[in-house]
Every structure is written in C-alpha cells, then in structure tokens.
Write a structure and sequence with these properties.
Number of domains: 3
Helix content: 40-55%
Strand order of the largest sheet: 1-4
Strand content: 5-15%
Largest sheet: 2 strands, antiparallel
Order of helices and strands: HHHHHEEEEHEEHH
Mean pLDDT: 82
Low-confidence stretches: 183-189
Distance between the termini: 49 Å
Structural class: alpha+beta
Number of helices: 8
Radius of gyration: 28 Å
Number of strands: 6
Length: 197
C-alpha cells in the first residue's frame, strides 16, 4: 500500500507507527487538538492498515540490516550457540585448583601471590572452551580473582535460541515459579533440560 493520499492522514499514521498516542499524533499531523477526532481517525481502517504496513516495512528493514551486519562480521548462529554453550557449561575446576594447603606463586608481572589453597591453572593449560567462559582474571589485595561470564544468562539465551521451553505441567501439579510476578524471566531448567536427555 502506498502512502495515503491525504497527507495529514499519512503524517498521523507515521506518528502512530512511531508510538505516539493518537491525540499527539493528531496534533503532529497538523490538526487542531481534539481527542474525539483523534480517536475517530485512529479507528479508520485505511489509517490502521497504513500503520500496520509501516510497522511491517520497518521490521523487514531491521531484519535485513541485522542480517547484513551478521554477514559482514561473519558470525553464524552455530557459532553463537557454541559460545553460549561454552559459557553455560563451563566448569570452574578447569581454571582453578583449591585445597587445604597454602601456596605461594610468582605471577608474570613478578609479584608474589600467597593463597590459602586456591590457585589458578596456568593459562597455557586451560582448554579453549574454559578460556572462552572466563571474563576476568587478576591480582587483588585479597589474592587472585577469577570471574566467569554469566552462566545463567548464557543458558537462558541458549534455550531461547534453540526454541526450548518447559513441557506443560499437569493441572493439579504445583507450577514452579507460580508465585513469581508476571513477566518474570525465570526459566525452569530441570524441565527444559530433560528434553536433551
């Protein structure tokens, strides 16, 4: 559908598509303030069709721009899934050793670090998957610090990319998270992960 022949209607539709309330879009289109007329024009089928078309065109343009950007940097969905898998299933024991004994280590920068039974595994001995899951390593006054990327966030995103959702529960069975507010982003991994097993 091409632009509406009535330029004020077209301007009104464009503003509605941008998210403006009808009364503001009506004024922005050049009409005098009138909430009733704004509401009536908002219900006009030609205007509603044009708003839907504008939104669909924008969504298509965004999809194409996203696809073009992804192609430009050479990232595939499979690569993203693999990276999220590395983070989500990282095992800290592949990067850190701990135990009851005290250890003294000399760091690359020459500093001496004493730890109460906790030491990092040398970076040359860490596998690629574990290294990808680590976001930060450093020396602090308290000792060595290691931080991994957000494991839970990676698993949630991984489930979303794989279109995995928890199977429906029986009516009489208590629903996990039923007491959570609407819109909560809690995912019940036990049920979702059973689909892989």
């Amino acid at each position: 559908m091409p632009a509406l022949s009535n330029r004020k209607w077209e301007a009104f539709a464009q503003r509605l598509a941008e998210g403006e309330p009808a009364y503001k879009a009506y004024e922005s289109a050049g009409y005098a303030s009138n909430h009733g007329n704004a509401s009536t024009l908002n219900k006009n089928q030609k205007v509603q069709n044009r708003v839907a078309e504008i939104l669909a065109e924008r969504e298509q343009a965004e999809r194409e721009a996203t696809k073009k950007a992804i192609n430009a940097i050479g990232v595939t969905k499979e690569q993203v899934i693999e990276e999220l898998r590395r983070i989500g299933f990282a095992d800290i024991r592949k990067a850190v050793k701990w135990g009851p004994t005290q250890r003294i280590s000399e760091m690359i920068d020459g500093s001496i670090v004493m730890s109460n039974g906790v030491t990092l595994i040398d970076s040359s001995d860490i596998d690629d998957a574990t290294a990808a899951a680590i976001s930060e390593v450093g020396n602090t006054k308290e000792g060595i610090k290691i931080k991994f990327h957000d494991k839970k966030g990676a698993l949630i995103e991984l489930l979303r990319l794989l279109n995995v959702s928890a199977p429906p529960k029986a009516e009489d069975e208590p629903q996990p998270g039923a007491d959570l507010p609407a819109g909560s982003n809690v995912v019940h991994f036990d049920a979702a992960l059973k689909r892989f097993g």
